[in-house]
Amino acid sequence: MVSITGSPGTRRRFGHQHGTCPGLHFRLLCRITIAACTEVQMKTTVSLIIATFLFCVSASAQDRNSEHARKTLEIYKRIVEVETAKNLGNVPEVANYLADELIAAGLPQADVEVLPNGETASLIARYRGDGSSGKAPILLLGHMDVVEANPDDWERPPFKLTQDDTYFYARGTIDNKFGVAQLTSTFIRLKKEGFVPNRDLILVFSGDEESGMVTTRQLAYERDDLAEAEFALNSDAGGGDLNKDGKALVYAIQAAEKTYVTWEMTARNPGGHSSRPRPDNAIYDLAEAIGKIQAHRFPVRWNPMTLEFFQVTGEQLGGELGDAMLRFAENPEDTEASDRLAVESSYVGTTRTTCVVTMLRAGHAENALPQSATATVNCRVFVGVPAAEVLATLQQVVGNDAIEFKETYAPVESPVSELREEIRAAISEAVQGRYPGVRMIAYMESGGTDGMHFRRAGIPTWAASGIFMNPDEMFAHGLNERVPIKTFYDALDHWSIIIRELASD
Predict the structure, then answer these.
(1) What's the predicted TM-score (pTM) here?
(2) In 6-107, which ranges are continuous DSSP H helix?
(3) Within this chain, do residues 332 and 380 fall inside the same structural domain, yes or no?
(4) Is the pLDDT reported for residue 24 higher than 80?
């Protein structure tokens, strides 16, 4: 995921319905038996349900030793420990390893394709169905690359999977090798179980989501076999939020993402000798412009999806922050409420366009006045707002016609994928088995994922990671990235359930 902020859980996210003790079967047992009970029978029935529940808990506790669990961890460890950051040329190693695993599980070699692209690569693997549904394929997305990690800054080696009693640690444990490992192992599992879907399923793993999305563009716009898909499900966003006590607050399905766009803002000057300072200075001019951008707040924006997100999240969260969410959902023009949300890094991106300076470069010698100074300004534009409008605002805010703006990353404006009931229902089967009764909502991602290109290509895309965790413990792109061990194992059935719901008669 590209620099996710404001993600309600992934960032950024399970039940055991198709395992040893299916959660679905348990829920059905509860509904059927309670409905059939007389008052006299109720005590016995409740005892039966409790016994069944305890058996399920016991069975689920043993899942870590199952073949599927061991295989998923094996894949996870293997790919996490390959450093797939930009310009290292290691993504093809991961792509070829995953391809070999899928072929060994029974996918025909002709249906598994590694596509080299410069120093990186992508992977396409088709799990053929019998075509009985008459429906177009489903794409299942992920990315194999990660952002850089400086070992000197980390408490643990960033490219070795380590753990304590609570977490797995390493770069990519969340973003997005969690999703890649879970999807790959699910394909292997389903193949070994003899599952025949009623439509084709296609794994689509990009190789540079974090650094330009060249492979993503190739996959989304240049592959006719992928363009025929009915929709895509992305493993790189969405997921569930837990509070500090482990209570599930909400499960969010990503249905839209803000536009990602970057400009280089440059001040120029004739320069000169540092012993003869002049009144104008490129660095000072740039610093003034940066200060104005820092102080500027883009207008508050909303849509029905974001208002529902704050309504549901606020109800579940409670407290002073939850109250601000509810007030915003009721009246998004409530300045006090929007100002309160603006100081929360997890939620500010859901209320407005944001622009932030992320990099600087200036000068050419310590004893020379700078001839140029450049700042990189990265913006995440609220869905539906043209990037050109944001640029015009930045130029107005800076108020200096001598400051140059150069676009470095072409904006990708993508539409909202309105959440379909069958998608919600399938994801619900996976999520409710783990956290019965948890509220489910669609949301807008503040960061960027591969999904933006598939949406732009006309393929509705929703992100539905199997991760549940406390957003305050989310360190994707940051130091000591980690994922709860419990979450890793609880998610083992997540994609299997969703796939069976969407690709079975």
Answers:
(1) 0.83
(2) 23-36, 39-61, 67-80, 91-104
(3) no
(4) no
